[in-house]
């Protein structure tokens, strides 16, 4: 919960140290990438070889913008999933699942 986007916006210097980006630049990046991340997730849910029904797995407990923020901090600072999970108030397994969901979209940006 420490590093959620709505909280870090109030601390722009800390935000920039963690991400390497000013808040305004990240907001613009998130506005462009959130739809792409969500579309990619929907596409993976609709694949024909999927064994579980849609909605048959745990939620991420993070909005997509927070997932992007977690991924950016993870790529820039390379903390463990336990640390990322602690910062965002989620489990280490959630932090581990979020990064591969968002990283390909960030690479294409």
Structural features, described:
With 109 residues, the protein is mainly α. It has helices spanning 5-8, 12-19, 23-45, 64-77, 81-88, 92-108. Helix 4 crosses helix 6 and helix 5 (81-88) crosses helix 6 (92-108). The mean pLDDT is 91.
Ordered list of secondary-structure elements with their pairings:
Blueprint: H1 5-8, H2 12-19, H3 23-45, H4 64-77, H5 81-88, H6 92-108
Helix pairs in contact: 3-4, 3-6, 4-6, 5-6
Question: Which features does this protein show?
Answer:
globular, single chain, 109 residues, mainly alpha, 6 helices
What's the β-strand tally?
Answer: 0
* Span between termini: 27 Å
Biggest pleated sheet: none
* Residue windows where pLDDT falls under 50 for at least 5 positions: none
- Percent helix among the residues? 55-70%
* Integer tally of domains: 1
Helical run tally: 6
Order of helices and strands: HHHHHH
Mean pLDDT: 91
Gyration radius over CA: 14 Å
- Give me the oligomer status: single chain
Shape: globular
**Per DSSP, what share of the residues sits in E-state strands of 2 or more residues?**
under 5%
Structural class comes to mainly alpha
Brief overview:
The protein is mainly α and 109 residues long.
